[in-house]
Amino acid sequence: MTEDVLRVNDLSTRFFTTEGQVNAVSNLDLRIERGEIFGIVGESGSGKSVTARSVMNLIESPGEITSGEIWYRNRDLVEDVEGDYPDAVDGEFVDLLALSDDVRRSLRGTSFSMIFQDPESSFNPTLTVGEQLAEAVEVQRRASANPRSTRARTREYSLGNYLLSTVLPSQRYVSEASHERAIELLELVGIPDPVERADEYPHEYSGGMLQRAMIAQALAGEPDLLIADEPTTALDVTIQAQILDLLDELQAETGMTILLITHNLGVIARMCDQVGVMYAGEIVERGTLEDVFDGHVHPYTEGLLGSVPDLERAGGRLQPIPGNVPSLLDHEMDDRCQFADRCPKAMEDCLEHPPEFDAPGSDHHEVRCVLTETEYDESRALPADYFGGKERPTADAYADPGTDIDESTGPGNPPRQPVDEPGGDRP
Amino acid sequence: MKRKRDYQALDSLDTVYGYYIQMTLGKFLVRRILQGVFVIWGVITIMFGLRAVSPGDPANLMLAEGATQALVEQVREEEGLNEPIYVQYFDYLQGMVVGDFGYSWQSNREVEAMVIERIPATIELAVAATIVAIVIAIPLGVISATRRNQPSDYGATLFSLLGISTPNFWLGLMLILILGVWAGLFPTGRRPVGFGPAVLTLAQTGSPSDIFTWLKYIALPAITLGTYFTALITRLTRSGMVDELGKPYVTASQAKGLPAVLVRYKHVLRNTMIPILTVLGLQIGTLMGGAVITETVFNWPGLGLRLIDALDARDWPLMQGIVVFIAIAFVSINIVVDALYAYLNPQVSDE
Question: Which top CATH class is A4-277?
Fold first, then answer.
């Protein structure tokens, strides 16, 4: 009954900066089923947002998707692009990376849309919220006016049109009907007095209200896949719960698919059907919620779960993962398990880059760790100072990381970032 | 709202505008107008003080060489030059308030008339230079910002660097020499017709030839005066736009599928324009009085040229009249720009 709506194969996104090549996302595989909420969780800088932006085609210079395929199931799109891009079509799937930028842009808003972390800076401060929502509605209206013609959709609203619209109201991009729909959308996401609120500017909204408005904006195009990039990070805790409730409700009503990106395991546990744990640009463990929370294999997942405050175990020490998020600079990365230098169970086998192994649990459970197939063997463990000493904890230090914290925060080592810090990734 | 910009002067502007957010627009305007009156009074007073301390007897300047002592004495009496200095000051101030700027010592004409007859030429030149600047600078800045670190960006950056560092008088002379004298594309010398009469001719006879003549004469001065301005606005547009393009709302607009043109112009350029309009307005104020060099080089019959003439002849009433007019123009334009800024930026006008 379920079918994949998105299959990401071997996706790599790199940033070519002056300091060197940054491997933000490496050989990432992902499958998202229609109607589910797929969560990606990981520390800041693990490549979560870049993954989302790669799907949206929002990677900007100096970033570049260097390899991979993003297969998107959409029969209408298949019909549209078959002629122009025969290689990009496989059954009901289309490889987005084989399409032109124009075609991909036409999918934004209508096939994929996105909610951002910081609602206050994600709205243009000089346009009313209603106008900005109406723009999103208009994108969808224009697309559905030519339902079968991606080519017509990709025809740009030109500079000439825009200049004309400054003199002729009839040439405006946003129609009156779209404005009315924008008000309905504001009402849908629970904004009181939507008619008046539509004419207000973003700075007149509270953070929670703006996030609701952004959700409304993302829903305007009735997308197949909604990507929510840290949707609650910038909000107060009480508001966070409301926003999650809203997303839950809307998902239940519309049956849309959501890719939820967060560093908050609580949010994952509450919302998601499937989870991918990201570390250093890779998904190190993925599977159903039960696979990851109860049947996890990867020591990093273990560490993440151990660093979440737990009321039932109140009084016990939190167990942060020692060490820092690794550098993603290509020349500083070794071809090994990226977590080995922080891993309490690192063995000689970990010096080779592990493939994804099928792990026990559901069919979807895949883990990028040798421990899936090999038992931890102390005799083959890497010595504690293998990666230059203090970074890597021994089994003892892991249990009581207090001593190791101060030493690792020396010069050259930026202060460690706890997993549940507020604030997410900014590329 | 605090924006980061690489144009230093704007930072201080922002601090000031940050304070304005607290006030309503009406209160703010009243306050600015009072400040403006104070500034103009200061200009008047300084001009009076300079005249008082400058050497030479005004009566001698007013009279032809070789006038008798009795005649000089008579003029001093008539002009009130024998009165104590504070009496002279209040007389003078009183005249200013009721709009009586006195008579030019040199030509014995009313100063108001001499100033007013030169205003149109100066405004024409200032507006033409501004149009040149806007038409060239904003597209150039946009191209530069959207094709960052590509050849067109380097070209635009080089152009603005040259524009900012080229002295006006030199550029004017070169344009006259190359385009005017050698190529013969543009006429040189004093223009035969102003904009007003040219439009009048068009209205009366339907012949646009005067307009074309006017355009030919104003082209080179406008380019000369506008070059620095163009370069400045290009740089501001580029840096402002680069700044805005990096903001999350741009990504958000792209994510909702908005056509690139709308993202770039309706969203990004709109936000970039807010600080640019401020600078634009302030620059027009400067152009009103700052065209002295350009007007001299092109023999352009504006206020700047008349100011130079007045300085040469030590014609104090005329000098004062022109300087006070420039001060009034500058202050008024500033107030308008401030009001415009508040109008454009909803966060400032919000009460």
Answer: alpha beta
